[in-house]
Amino acid sequence: MLNGERKIIRPLRWGMIGGGRTGQVGYKHRTGALRDNTAYKLVAGAFDLDAQRGREFGIELGMNSERLYDDYQSLLSAEGKRDDGVEVISIATPNFSHFEITMAALHAGIHVICEKPLFFTVAECVTVEKLAEEKGLIVGVTYGFSGHPLVHQMAAMVKKGLLGEIRIVDLQYTHGFNAGDDVDAPDAMKWRTNPATSGPTFVLGDIGTHLYYLSELVVPQLKVKKLLCDRQSFIKSRFPLEDNAYVLSHYDNGAVSRLWVSSVNAGNMGSQRYRFVGSKASVEWSDSHPDQLTYEIQGQPVQILHHGMPYLEEQSLACDRMGALHTEGLGDSWANMYLWIAQAIDAKIRGNETFLKNHHYPGIKAGTEGVRWLENCVRSADNGSAWVEFQ
Length: 391
Ligand SMILES: NC(=O)c1ccc[n+]([C@@H]2O[C@H](COP(=O)([O-])OP(=O)(O)OC[C@H]3O[C@@H](n4cnc5c(N)ncnc54)[C@H](O)[C@@H]3O)[C@@H](O)[C@H]2O)c1
Fold this sequence. Notes:
Dihydrodipicolinate Reductase, domain 2, alpha/beta, Rossmann fold, 14 strands, 35% helix, nine-stranded mixed β-sheet, 2 domains, binds nicotinamide-adenine-dinucleotide, single chain, five-stranded parallel β-sheet
């Protein structure tokens, strides 16, 4: 169980780019990083495109006004001159700026935690991977539910062979918040439906990458061999970006997968659902009921496994925070994910490569694989939804 006790020598000096007052995801980053005050200390920020609003926001967070900056360039330059300058920044800005800000931070010798979808292209990911390697820096990627104890329970059950051989992976992340048109859409929607600011996809990158990464966590032995993606723009002004998509995949061991992402699932308040079907049993987890995992063994009554209970696997109990009596949710998962990234950065600072080899966190490779998956989806969809070999 995690209870906030120190896991690294001292908290990392942390800064944020984006994620300001009007940003949708900024608070999730602060919830994750600051849950344990033993992991990060928020010391600097360029929170907003509107510099004045960004400064005011930082002050309302209780920060030192001297370390609130108009833009990320001033932050990197001024913090670089301080003995107590930031060691790591998080990037919670629209997709198109991730690459530019990540490159600048790495050149300044600062570790990075970046939002998904990481970048627009695999080529950009490879460039960043090389630079991070050269500079000895970590790049973490924020797949929000990757720290949930029941996700790790599913992974442990698959690894132990409790499901038998995995045959089917069934994934869904949908909501109905964009079922109407974009006439009065907020800025957060405008940039998401413009290829120049969102990249080659809308919902596939926005929410589908979460499904893909979590499936990689649970069934890492399965590698996609080929896939077929069918994407639609039900609101025509969003074309060529999709607000709904289906992806069928074949894995190299003969297993198959079906994935549905949508922001036009009218009436649906948003849910992620993961089902892994093996030759002996299945497990299913959804963030609508985050405390419970359904475990169905063929021929036996359905079992509901509850987070935090001693019958769960060690891997799951080790990252439980709330205990079985209380709900374990998204904030707890973000806190785990941020902690694991902090441990990676701390190990890098201390040159502890042995620790890093055995330490799991969503890093640059996880971000790259998400972008690779998107590139393959787009190649298929834009080729008449043809089956394509995964490259
Ligand atoms: N991991 C998750 O669960 C999750 C959830 C939501 C969004 N996201 C991702 O987070 C990113 C941001 O999404 P959002 O919904 O919060 O967007 P948003 O439009 O709501 O907020 C973006 C914020 O960044 C600021 N900003 C933009 N450019 C900036 C710059 N150059 N310098 C400083 N600040 C800048 C804006 O002023 C705003 O505060 C996207 O990449 C999105 O895909 C991830």
